[in-house]
Amino acid sequence: CEDWRDYYESNYEADFDEYYRLWRGIWDPADRERSSERSRIISPALQQAVESNVAELEEATFGRGKWFDIADDMNDPEKQDVQYLRNKLTEDFEQCKIRKAVAECLINAAVFGTGVGEIVIEEIKEMAPATQPIMDGQLQAVGVNITDRVVVKLKPVMPQNFLIDPVATSVDDAMGVAVDEFVSRHQVEILQEQGVYRDVYVGNAAPDTDLEPDQDITIYNDDKIRLTKYYGLVPRELLDSAVSDDDEEVVGDQGSESKYVEAVVVVANGGILLKAEANPYMMQDRPVVAFPWDVVPGRFWGRGVCEKGYNSQKALDTELRARIDALSLTIHPMMALDATRMPRGAKPEVRPGKMILTNGDPREVLQPFNFGQVSQITFAQAGALQQMVQQATGAVDSAGIAGQVNGEATAAGISMSLGAIIKRHKRTLINFQQSFLIPFVKKAAYRYMQFDPESYPVADYKFNASSTLGIIAREYEVTQLVQLLQTMQKDSPLYNTLIQSIIDNMNLSNREELLAAMQKAMQPNPQAQQMAQAAQQAQLQFQQSQTA
């Protein structure tokens, strides 16, 4: 892990720190482009691009409420276990705030290029208020029901706290991965009391600012422990010697002939072994999921929004700072004077109401002085650089792409520009679903099946994402459907289907109720059908009698 950290610090640490500062709007002396630069302004263009892209992916993933689905089991025609598992998983994910954790991983991916999450299992005491009859039902005792249960949580991991084999391109291909971070002392002590960690003296961690989530604040160094959790392959003989101290048996999935065994190792403060055991999970998977915002071939660390818009953002900041520095020379009044004709001890300063004494005609001694005016071309340059940031990152805000999305173009032009934007969002969305979202749901379900089999049916289910289009794509699609609806008669069989598609794509609070009411209205009325059949038979009998 120390070699992996050296590789990360040599190649990525400085860039990631600068991306973080640009996203947060934090100025640093290292970010100057000119030695004479005095202004510290940072344009919000890159911040807007990050938030716009993340919001689009969040809306596409969670906007419909149901963000994952389970494929129907052919052996179960009732689909009861599938429905139960989906509802149970959704309820537990809601309780553990999984959506909030996934949103944080998305922000990390947009800023640094890769989003990483650790799947954590916790034993909690679930409390619920309850009443109980006492004294033969004459009184009600009010209290709390406490049940012990296992929950699965997702913990976002910052890139400086994540270590991976440098030649690997994914978590599963690596020899191993590690989460290296500071934790509070009480967390380790509680796990030692529960018997999860060995009962050894840990001590205090040495300060290391590189592991902190924010590099620009004063670091708190007391009651912290540096915890390194390693998930991956370790030499079997090392694990045997570590576990033999506890008189336990090593069980590996590779068999005794393999040199390596999949294990979980926890080390405190760089050298104190707290836990070492073979992988305890039934599917022998690693409890880490990660995805790149944009894939860089042959590399684990991806390419995020900040990296895409980096050069345009730096040019925009330089342009704005140069203009503000020039304003200080052109706005504030300055005075040129003949120093030989000023009285001894005079203070040559300019302020309202001040009298300036001169030896001779003041028009000859004093003269207003300035450096001219700031060129107006910098306004146009700043606007062009802002468009370059949007072009590089694919972000669209209320300003839009000038002349294309903001109402100055035809419908065809808007469709072409929005189509290009939606394409880029869909690339990232599919990458996020296949590399992060679905693997997380699978691993969480497997852990619930293993550690809480009473609540979760154990079977081989196929999970898929219910993520749909983002809000920009949905509005674009609604516009197209409305245009198509205008060319159709109301008695057309496709008319109701199109209206249903429009309601389904709109972000309405009562969308489900509207769709249910539409489907109910589309179903045939039995009484009306009987009356129509009776009328048809009467007409047929009348015709037959006339013919006779």
Explain how this protein is built.
43% of the residues lie in helices and 18% in strands. It has helices spanning 2-11, 13-24, 45-62, 80-95, 98-112, 185-193, 236-244, 305-308, 310-330, 362-365, 377-393, 411-451, 471-485, 495-505, 511-522, 526-547, and strands spanning 68-70, 114-134, 139-157, 162-164, 176-184, 224-235, 260-268, 272-278, 288-292, 334-337, 366-369, 463-465. A five-stranded antiparallel sheet has the order 4-5-6-7-8. A hairpin with a 3-residue loop joins strand 7 (260-268) and strand 8. Helix 9 packs antiparallel against helix 11 (377-393).
Task: Spell out the blueprint of helices and strands.
Layout (H helix, E strand, L loop, with lengths): L1 H10 L1 H12 L20 H18 L5 E3 L9 H16 L2 H15 L1 E21 L4 E19 L4 E3 L11 E9 H9 L30 E12 H9 L15 E9 L3 E7 L9 E5 L12 H4 L1 H21 L3 E4 L24 H4 E4 L7 H17 L17 H41 L11 E3 L5 H15 L9 H11 L5 H12 L3 H22 L1
Antiparallel strand pairs: 1-12, 2-3, 2-9, 4-5, 5-6, 6-7, 7-8, 10-11
Helix pairs in contact: 3-5, 3-11, 9-11, 13-14, 14-15
List keywords for this structure.
548 residues, alpha+beta, 5-stranded antiparallel β-sheet, extended
Low-confidence stretches: 398-407
What characterizes the major β-sheet?
Answer: 5 strands, antiparallel
Compressed to H and E, one letter per element, the order equals: HHHEHHEEEEHEHEEEHHEHEHHEHHHH
Overall outline: extended
Strand proportion:
15-25%
Oligomer: single chain
Radius of gyration: 34 Å
What would the average pLDDT be, to the nearest integer?
Answer: 81
- Derived from helix and strand composition plus strand pairing, the structural class reads alpha+beta
Contiguous helical run count: 16
